[in-house]
Amino acid sequence: ATPTALLVGTGRGAQLGIVIKGPEVLESTRAVDTVVLDKTGTVTTGRMSLLEVLGDPAALRLAAAVEAASEHPIARAVVAGHPDPLPEVTGFVAEAGHGVRGTVEGHRVRVGRAAAPAELAGAVSAAEAAGRTAVAVEVDGAVRAVLVVADTVRPTSRAAVAELRSLGLAPVLVTGDAAGPAAAVAREVGLDPDAGEVVSGVLPEGKVDVVRDLQARGRVVAVVGDGVNDAAALATADLGLAMGTGTDVAIEAGDVTLVRADLAAAADAVRLARRTLSTIK
Ligand code: ADP
Ligand code: MG
Predict the structure, then answer these.
(1) CATH number for the domain including 216?
(2) Which of 46, 167, 193, 200 is 20 to 30 A away from residue 181, measured at CA?
(3) Co-location of 160 and 78 in the same domain
(4) From 44, 62, 78, 98, mutation site for ligand 1 pocket: most ligand atoms within 8 A of C-beta
């Protein structure tokens, strides 16, 4: 490979808002045949809003107090949903892919994944079937409320998925979110949950397992992600593409930063790399 051609490739990348860590990254895109897509903040904008509080409305204040210490899109939605002054939290802990916890006014408060109590189960399934994310608020060990938050699919994601397919990449949506919202978002962007194109309920370590599993089956895997929970998968991937709006750890773990927070930039990156390499050959 001539260094000049590679540098032209990276220069053109900069124009497209694709920042490549080193020219050698272009080489790893040559054989990529599978693309793992994170949902929240990657396929969707990750700008969530709080739609509904199911159960005890007073639980929102406690939940928002704990979420105030978190950067997660769900946390931002919950805090914005309770704009009044919030009580202090002590002993704050964020568990990636699970949720957050802390002590507020003497109560142990946890916000995150948990089974909905029987009386809320129907409302939770309806919200999830509509593509919404539901998180439970536990106070002193008992679920007191379920918060329903909504995200928005990026307007360009559907066309980008089609483009990734046309480049010969098999797309898979891999998310920590529940099956309902995962399938709803998948269908919106042209992915088929019934054809194995969606893996939901995955913990951050699980995202790495999905990548390794695909690699073990001979696939050459790109990962597109933005979150703390995507960092390990981005590092394990043959090609890690981090959204420029993402967290610093994700950007550090990736080989490529997509400055335009747009899935179409992932397709551009693959096309650019292939074109640059064919110029060299
Ligand atoms: P994704 O893979 O879609 O980016 P995450 O791994 O960040 O999702 O989160 C997976 C799940 O963990 C969320 O759907 C939610 O149930 C829970 N969760 C993670 N962080 C938080 C938080 N700060 N507040 C509430 N729930 C959270
Ligand atoms: Mg994400």
Answers:
(1) 3.40.50.1000
(2) 167
(3) no
(4) 98
